[in-house]
Amino acid sequence: MTNNVQAVVPARRRPRSLAQELVDSLSNQIRNGEIVPGEKLPTESEIMRAFGVSRTVVREALSRLQASGMVETHHGVGTYALKPSGMGDFRVDPADIATVRDIVVILELRICLESEAAGLAAARRTDEQLAHMREALDQFRAALVPGGDTVTPDFRFHLLVAEATQNKYFADLMSHLGAAIIPRTRINSAKLAHEDRVSYLARVNLEHEDIYEAIRRQDAESARAAMRTHLSNSRERLRRAQER
């Protein structure tokens, strides 16, 4: 997480002016890659301390960033950076993903998009990209038991797979879909699966590992199949929950 945001806002400024300075600073960090797509931003309290501003100013700035498509906020989870691109306003509004049915629809899109992305990634990935995928999965596993943030490394892994296709449109689509595509940012996935949190996430981790191994071996068909299995499992769990 990027906690060392770099800015000192002058005192005795109007709140609206302070908010815009904060927007400009955070926007620049996102555009420059200091805060990467899918990464969780510092908490409101951390930003308040770093910039010397009030909570009102921080919330105003985050609201503006969300309206401009630079970040997305999930209640009770945090605020995540999105990737700036030339795709205009195309992105999924988290407010539109409100029901289990909405999440199932997004998963149907992801199955089509990411299964092919995994196959292309297996054929085209670089050693450096593979190393970054390994790092994301290690971060996911490390966060299992302490109850840490698994959403950031989860989204990062899927985004890295998209980037490894060497086709910018896969990565642009994933970035604009944002971390809201991870079902547990919207619902209690473990509860729907009738599992405790650690068991549920451990199974998700194993599915990620299957995808990674196929990409590491450069086995395109196995990578497609592993990604399809991973996302289809989530879809079927949610469909069963809908029926119940």
Automatic annotation (TrEMBL):
The keyword DNA-binding applies. One of its GO terms (molecular function) is DNA-binding transcription factor activity. Residues 233-244 have a biased composition (Basic and acidic residues). InterPro entries: GntR_C, TF_FadR/GntR_C, Tscrpt_reg_HTH_GntR, WH-like_DNA-bd_sf, WH_DNA-bd_sf. Keywords: DNA-binding, Transcription, Transcription regulation. Residues 225-244 are annotated as: Disordered. It holds the Pfam family FCD. It comes from the Bacteria. Residues 16-84 form the HTH gntR-type domain. This is GntR family transcriptional regulator. It comes from Achromobacter aloeverae. The lineage of its organism: Bacteria, Pseudomonadati, Pseudomonadota, Betaproteobacteria, Burkholderiales.
